[in-house]
Amino acid sequence: MGEVAPALQTTSRTSRTSTNLHNGLFMATTVTTAGRPVVGESNWLKALTNWIRNHKQAAAYLAVGLVVAVGLFAWNLLSAKTAERSAGRQIAQGRLALDSKNYPLAASVLSQVVENFSGTHGAQEASILLAQARLAQGQTQQAIEVLQRSAPKADKYFRAQTYGLLGAAYENALRPKDAATAYEAAAAAALYPFLRAQFLSDAGRAWLTAGDTAQALAAYRTITEKLDSTSAAGEAKVRLGELTKGNGHR
């Protein structure tokens, strides 16, 4: 019986050792399996490192190009902001002169903004104010020229106002057909229904002056059918009644 105990102890140790080895193998297998995605994710980094090591000159050119591109972007952004601020200060001066009815000074200041800050929001605003100064001085043709240059390039925040003022300038120059076309362009660019209705009403008036009743009717009908909730709808209904003798014929 005394010899059996060591044998049992040996068997027990062997079993524990086998179990430990099995657990060790299982743990090792688990770690290895869990580690595989990390290795996979780092493959692209190794490939990039190898490419840079084998193409040092090309990598240097790419790095320099990237730095230059970032620098140019930052410089352009800073320059644009600086230009807008400078234009804003001059526009304030021009607006003050315009409000004070010092039209020659206003025109001088605003024309510099248009010329020196072309392509900015400031230049678009200055074009409108410059045209107003020209019109106030009776320089209708000069106002038209300013607006003809700026209207096609104006963004959505200034396009309707620019075309609307161009229509008014054409009316001053006794060019009703051109005025109507400009007013319709302003209506198409208007961001708000009430502005669209007002410009269409202006277009209808100009078409009547030009002798084109059909175009005037079309403008007024657009107001009554699509913009009936605006203040211009009442006048449009009156004009339609006058033009159709109250019978609504097209």
Distance from first to last alpha carbon: 124 Å
CATH H-tier superfamily of the largest domain: Tetratricopeptide repeat domain
CATH architecture of the largest domain: Alpha Horseshoe
Q: Show unreliable segments.
A: 1-38
Detailed description of the structure:
The chain has 250 residues and is mainly alpha-helical. It has 2 domains: 61-153, Serine Threonine Protein Phosphatase 5, Tetratricopeptide repeat; 156-250, Serine Threonine Protein Phosphatase 5, Tetratricopeptide repeat. The protein contains 11 helices and no strands. α3 (56-99) packs antiparallel against α4 (103-116), α9 runs parallel beside α11 and α10 packs across α11 (232-243). The longest helix is centred in the N-terminal third of the chain and has 44 residues, at 56-99.
